[in-house]
Amino acid sequence: MSAKKTLRIGLIGYGFMGRTHSNAYKRVGDFFPELKYRPVLKAVCARNQERVQAFAEQWGYESVETDWRALIAREDIDAIDICTPNNMHAEIAIAAAAAGKMVLCEKPLARTVAEAQPMVDAVEKAGVRNTVWYNYRRIPAVTLAKKLIDAGKLGKIFHYRANFLQDWTISPELPQGGEGLWRLDNDAAGSGVTGDLLAHCIDTAMWLNGGIKDVSAVTETFVKERLHSGTGELTKVGIDDACIFHCHFENGSLGVFESTRYARGHKALNTFEINGEHASIRWDLHDLNRLEYFDHRDDPMIRGWRTIHVTDGDHPYMDKWWVPGLSIGYEHTFVHQVADFLKSIEEQTICSPTFREAQETQKVCEAVLESAATRSWKDTGVNWD
Ligand code: SOE
Questions:
Q1: Residue of 107, 197, 334 with the most ligand 1 atoms within 8 Å of its CB, for mutation
Q2: Radius of gyration of the CA atoms of the chain, in A
Q3: C-beta of residue 96 within 8 angstroms of C-beta of residue 78
Q4: DSSP string spanning 37-81?
Q5: Is 111:121 a contact under the CB 8 Å cutoff?
Q6: The complex's ipTM?
Q7: pLDDT tens, 141-195?
Q8: 268 pocket-lining for ligand 1 (C-beta < 6 Å)
Q9: Distance 196 CA to ligand 1 centre (A)
Q10: How many CA atoms lie within 13 A of 222 on its CB side?
Q11: pTM of the predicted protein model
């Protein structure tokens, strides 16, 4: 077997996403042996020397840095993977692209469209490979949904319905800011559930059903003040705790989206349902290996919702894992995205979603927040060809 080429990874940030990405880099070669590139865990970077050293030893990174600029300057790093709070994405990505590094960035691309655009410009000017970790596209059932829609199985689409419901910020005692709670600090995150959770739903929706043309939204901040971990002061909350919006898609269909982190009884209920002229499909992250399908063309005597257990070898990605009937999990979506990224290097293609595609999702998020703030419909300006 010819020697593998290496892709030397420099990871910035080691939280929850640092773990999912590191796991994916370590496992991809075992399950996608045909790939010509293999990731090397070259360095992980974070401010706290002791904690980043411990993470490096636990996961097998060869070295550590405490200044991301030093990491980007290293000649022995090929790709920078950004797992920081959203307010750091732009500066790091722009510097990495200027240094000729490939850039993988956690979602959302940035806090605003204006902050994200120079990121798109930087990677395209430098001609470096780039992708954004909208990982739910790479759940086999979601990829299968894309194949069914693109094959015309559903026919003309009339409705798209999506939820992303969680419950972890309901306590008023939860501070904003600081380790793991930056998502509650508007300065670090840029928004609440809109950029954190609806961004996933919007990316999936546009990937499956095309561009979102305009939106009408309502947001709410239920807990108005929280202690700020950084200042210790009781501070006004600037994020949206919950968001509901409806929209027109470019293809004439209507969309309804809801997200909250106050929904008792739901830990990560990410769902979509799509209704077409011939058929409907629906999917739920809590049962991620299944895609439900209804086809009006079935014999009326047996017409009804059927469950496709998306674990057969001819289902997307599933030939890489176990045997039919045995499921995979959330963590496999990151392995799939790393595999697709490595393949895109080999084939000189793109690994979707690119920064440019993720900027379109950013435009919808921003239009949603503007619509809610002005209690009016907002055009998104999305260009989703
Ligand atoms: C928290 O809401 C969170 O971790 C998001 O930030 C992730 O993107 C989502 O996949 C799970 O929930």
A1: 197
A2: 21
A3: no
A4: EEEEEEEEE-S-HHHHHHHHHHHT-SEEES-HHHHHH-TT--EEE
A5: no
A6: 0.98
A7: 999 999 999 999 999 999 999 999 999 999 999 999 977 799 999 999 999 999 9
A8: yes
A9: 6
A10: 15
A11: 0.98
